[in-house]
Design a protein that fits this description.
The protein is of the alpha/beta class. It folds into two domains: 77 residues, 2-Layer Sandwich (GMP Synthetase, Chain A, domain 3), CATH 3.30.300.130; 252 residues, Rossmann fold (3-Layer(aba) Sandwich). 33% of the residues lie in helices and 23% in strands. The strands form four sheets. It has an eight-stranded mixed sheet, with helices on both faces. β13 and β14 form a beta hairpin.
């Protein structure tokens, strides 16, 4: 029986592709330790993104492959998730209590951006990350409703300076809606809105967040520019529908983030297809393939394509978005995959490759 070598172990691991990193664990820099003790092999991988619902199955798959290697009697694979801070725009200071800021944006309203932001935040939390969500849509805040927070609920104020974010479904939530009357419109000019956004972000006592999801207002105006200049955004997600008008505005959103040097992590396409609840007929009400074309045009990834579903709308209106209302559903699984891909894209954008540690018998 030939002795097991590190090269053989790495060659085995290279045969498997992490579906979120689109690379094998060795090429992606995830391999941290290889311990070869005769016919026993132990491997430790480190993922730079939240993957609590994925890592055990991933470890089991790699373990079975290693145990099929010649000379290996038993193998152990440990997969850890370690989420680091990633640099945002140059010369923008870090945000206290927050490792990574994710902007969820759209060129126009009505494309399901807020619903996507809420489910993304909840999906990241289900994967084991510490998550917050900021409702930056000053004129039309909706995250309070989506997270089931009762009207009139106010955040505590600490030391007469810090807002303590509310918590719902394991996510820290902050919104202008918590500071105003829901029935009173915000009749503010641009500078007032920008000032309010900065105050919400910088004067909220975020508690050790891995990710802060920012639900942006639609468009490419003052709030977007303020965010780009004052907040260290690790990456942005563009939400659109297949409709030509929505895609036209989504292109503007992509271009805006590129001009302010914020990485576009990818595109989420909502309302891609409607499936009749009676007969099962699939119909593309808003067009077909628009998200793919947009992603291809700008060299970014189509992160997720979601159907036009009454359940998504009803669950959000009831204060329990799909990710937690029906966590085993096909739609919830799409959101979970989206969360892992977003985290992986952030990790790939700025994480240095760490040296591997090898322990072997002489």
């Amino acid at each position: 029986m030939s002795a097991v070598t590190r090269e053989a172990v790495e060659a085995c691991l290279r045969q498997f592709t992490d579906p979120h990193l689109d690379q094998d664990p060795v090429s992606a820099g995830c391999l941290r330790e290889v311990d070869i003790q005769g016919a026993r092999v132990s491997v430790r991988l480190e993922l730079g993104y939240a993957a609590g619902l994925f890592k055990n199955g991933w470890a089991q798959m790699l373990q079975m492959a290693l145990e099929n290697l010649e000379g290996v009697d038993s193998a152990q694979v440990q997969v850890d998730c370690v989420i680091d801070s990633h640099q945002g725009q140059a010369q923008v200071p870090a945000l206290a209590g927050v490792k990574n800021v994710i902007a969820v944006a759209s060129g126009k309203g009505g494309v399901g951006k807020s619903t996507t932001a809420a489910n993304l935040a909840l999906a990241l939390a289900r994967e084991g990350a510490r998550v917050g969500i900021l409702d930056a849509d000053i004129y039309g805040p909706s995250q309070g409703i989506m997270f089931g927070i009762a009207e009139g609920t106010r955040p505590e104020v600490r030391e007469q300076k810090w807002f303590v974010p509310l918590e719902a479904h394991g996510v820290q939530v902050m919104s202008m809606a918590f500071l105003t009357d829901d029935n009173t419109p915000m009749v503010w000019r641009g500078p007032m809105v920008s000032g309010a956004l900065l105050q919400l972000i910088t004067q909220t006592a975020w508690n050790d967040l891995d990710y802060l999801v920012v639900d942006m207002p639609p468009g490419t105006g003052d709030i977007q520019l303020t965010l780009a200049q004052k907040v260290p955004v690790a990456g942005s997600v563009i939400v659109t529908t297949p409709q030509d008008l929505a895609l036209l505005d989504a292109r503007k959103g992509v271009e805006m983030f590129r001009k302010v040097h914020i990485p576009v992590l990818g595109v989420v396409e909502n309302m891609a297809v409607h499936i009749c609840s009676n007969c099962g007929h699939a119909e593309h009400l808003f067009g077909e393939g628009g998200g793919e074309k947009l992603a291809a045009q700008y060299g970014v990834e189509l992160l997720a394509s979601l159907p036009l579903s009454m359940a998504i709308r009803m669950q959000a209106d009831d204060g329990k978005p799909t990710t937690i209302a029906d966590p085993e559903s096909q739609i919830a699984m799409i959101y979970q995959d989206l969360a892992r891909k977003v985290g992986a894209r952030i990790a790939m954008a700025g994480k240095p490759v760490m040296p591997n540690i090898e322990i072997s018998e002489d």
